[in-house]
Amino acid sequence: MDIKRTALDRQGQANDAPALVPSVDIVEDQNGITLKADLPGVSKETLSIDVDGDTLTVEGAVALGESKELRALYAEVRVARYRRSFVLGRDLDTERIEASMRNGVLTLNVPKREHAKPRRIAVKAE
Fold first, then answer.
1. What distance in Å separates the CA atoms of residue 121 and residue 106, rounded to the nearest whole number?
2. What are the φ and ψ backbone dihedral angles of 94, each rounded to 5 degrees?
């Protein structure tokens, strides 16, 4: 997965078409945050993760494998992509984001900057 540093789609155009909003769980620990997004039908190749300033955008095209020659008689989901954006805190290091995809679940690990991590101060006896 390639994490890009822009908020543009793969053709370099701003993409404002309606999209499905994926369900997301976010947890924080002393090292940073972990974001898990449900993206069923999205492959690693059609996934785009962009960082622009303090905004993280996740976007993925749904590839259901249907034939272009067939026409849907009934379809509950017409939008063929997911999109969701998040504003990241300044204490998070966007240069070290790690991403993995497994069984339609995207996992992003966003570490805290070193100065933002809690630390223990040793007390010296005199």
1. 37
2. -70, -15
Residue 24 bridge partners (DSSP): 37
Query: Look-up: residue for tokens 């898990």?
Result: 36
Q: What is the pTM of this model?
A: 0.72
Please enumerate in sequence order all residues whose Cβ is within 8 A of that of 118, keeping only pairs 6 or more positions apart, or say none.
30
pLDDT digits (tens, 9 = 90+) for 9-38: 444 444 455 788 999 999 999 899 999 999
**Cβ neighbours around 114 below 10 Å, total:** 8
Give 43-55 pLDDT, tens digit per residue: 889 999 999 989 9
Domains belonging to the chain, first-starting first, are 3-116 (2.60.40.790)
